[in-house]
Specification:
The protein is α+β, with helices and mostly antiparallel strands. Helices cover 24% and strands 18% of the residues. The protein has one helix and three strands, in the order αβββ. A hairpin with a 5-residue loop joins strand 2 (39-43) and strand 3 (49-52). Bound molecules: zinc ion.
Length: 68
């Protein structure tokens, strides 16, 4: 039982902290705007747009937040 509680706790902590930088962004593929090899993504949350070859962007590109 303790093992199960530990696993659930670890999973919840991972959900909260593991992906913090991408959490505010909800990337959507825009296939019509893809360029050869690179998929175009648009964030439904902040409106950021990017071309990315390696799948979904790992960061939030919200222009109002600025990049450190
Ligand atoms: Zn965003």
């Amino acid at each position: 039982m303790i093992l199960v509680i530990g696993l659930v706790t670890a999973f919840v902590l991972l959900m909260i902290f593991g992906n913090r930088s991408t959490r505010p962004c909800r990337w959507r593929e825009a296939r019509s705007r893809a360029e050869d090899g690179a998929m175009f993504y648009r964030c439904a949350a902040c409106g950021a747009e990017t071309l990315n070859r390696g799948g979904l962007p790992k960061v939030c590109l919200d222009p109002t937040k600025g990049t450190p």
